[in-house]
Design goal:
single chain, alpha/beta, Rossmann fold, 12 strands, four-stranded antiparallel sheet, binds adenosine-5'-triphosphate, 11 helices, binds magnesium ion, 29% helix
Length: 335
């Protein structure tokens, strides 16, 4: 088995042109993702966090190459290098047609399991769909795979012939997980998979994902708002702000000893029952997130940063490795 990461994202940019006027000419650009780099290792769970609108979903969509369906004129630059066995494939360069061949290798689970499961299909049909497309299994074999997968995600064979509306939110998300697993993917991208669920159900679904990660040879990109969820599940955490990565490193390090002022501020908003940190200062960020249409020059966080200096406006800071595998993009902290 190759020891290369599952995926290397290199200087990824995703810009959405804004058109205006009667002849619909380009009047601006939403810089949703503005040059980010990170990798996800084999059997690794990477958590991606940041405030609303900072570009997390766009990163996930770019990584499964579905952005052209959402926004046909999207501009994508950089590399999304998947290492499938001996083959290396750049998803940033593939057309929708070319990517079909690799569809089974990267799957996505969405926030709202109701909207992402076809209400007219039974659970069995939903899970079978990718099997029909990507495997040569016979009808009987597919039926067995479906039942096996249902059991793996904590459901039962009797659920196979029911429709999505007959399930609770947590159960529907389990169906989504079973479908994602059906093709035995290398990577599953989960876009806020538990934020629509009751808190009591969230923990069950997260535990299930952790079990699955151990049992199947699969990596996860886990997008979330809630840092405490990410800390629990992730090996590494990436912190994003206005289209850039501010910090990327081992989950425990980033969570307990954040280095970037933005990560520190994000974390200070999380209540943690940790006696060591209970006297921690709470940092309240002033102002709203600026728009990705008109980003501040240099470090995009500088307009809200408590330690910003003049030099922060000069150029976009690159990630620097401050501790082993712990990267920080800040001209003050990582000078
Ligand atoms: N199809 C699109 N066309 C134009 N702009 C878009 C499109 N999709 C996203 N954007 C813009 O890109 C930016 C990043 O959006 P994105 O949905 O990736 O953020 P997010 O971090 O997932 O936010 P949330 O936490 O609210 O889900 C936002 O300013 C958004 O308005
Ligand atoms: Mg999102």
């Amino acid at each position: 088995m190759s020891q290369k990461p599952v995926v290397d994202v290199k200087n990824l940019k995703v810009h959405f042109p804004i058109h205006g006027g009667v002849i619909s000419k380009k009047v601006g650009t939403v810089k949703a993702v503005d040059g980010i780099s990170f990798s996800i290792g084999r059997r690794e769970i990477v958590g991606l966090v940041g405030e609303s609108g900072c570009g997390k979903t766009t990163v996930g969509r770019a990584m499964i190459n579905i952005l052209h369906h959402v926004a046909p004129d999207v501009e994508i630059d950089g590399e999304i290098l998947y290492h499938f066995g001996d083959e290396t494939v750049d998803f940033a360069k593939l057309t929708s047609r070319e990517v079909r061949k690799y569809r089974s290798r990267v799957q996505m689970i969405f926030q709202d399991p109701y909207a992402s499961l076809n209400p007219r299909m039974t659970v069995s049909q939903i899970i079978e769909e990718p099997l029909k497309l990507h495997t040569n299994q016979t009808e009987n074999e597919r039926r067995n795979t479906v039942i096996n997968l249902l059991e793996k995600v904590g459901l039962q064979a009797v659920h196979a012939d029911r429709f999505p509306h007959e399930f609770s939110g947590g159960q529907r998300q389990r169906v989504g997980i079973a479908r994602a697993l059906a093709t035995n993917p290398d990577l599953i991208i989960c876009d806020e998979p538990v934020s629509a669920l009751d808190v009591s159900i969230q923990a069950q679904v997260i535990n299930l994902m952790m079990d699955i990660q151990k049992e199947f040879d699969v990596s996860f990109l886990f997008i979330a708002h809630d840092l405490s969820v990410v800390e629990h599940i992730s090996d590494k955490i990436a912190v994003m702000y206005l289209g850039n990565l501010m910090e990327f490193g081992p989950a425990k390090q980033v969570y307990h000893h954040p280095k970037h002022p933005y990560s520190t501020a994000l974390l200070s908003a999380v209540p943690i029952p940790d006696p060591e940190q209970k006297n921690r200062q709470r940092i309240v960020l002033e102002g709203d997130v600026p728009t990705p249409i008109n980003k501040p020059s240099g470090c995009s966080f500088r307009t809200r940063c408590p330690v910003a200096e003049d030099k922060c406006a000069e150029s976009i800071p690159h990630l620097k490795e401050l501790d082993p595998n712990h990267w920080v993009a800040c001209p003050i902290v990582a000078d």
